[in-house]
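Bit of a strange request maybe. I'm writing a small parser for structure token strings and I need a real example to test against, not something I typed by hand. Could someone generate the tokens for this chain?
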Amino acid sequence: VATQVADYRTPWNSGRFGGGTGSGFLIGPNQFLTNAHVVSNARRILITRRDSARKHPARVVHIAH
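Reply from user aminoacidic:
Good idea to test on real output. This should exercise your parser:
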């Protein structure tokens, strides 16, 4: 997950960039469930299977904190 945190005190700056990893579970066809903190502020989400190096783009459909 690539994240970008906005800096509201200096809005002309693009903000901090970062990244991270997290776990998730397949819950339906093309649907995964993960914790909200894994995808909060996500600019780009890529999913990989444990047995493969191939990366698949994903998007957030619902989030609750």
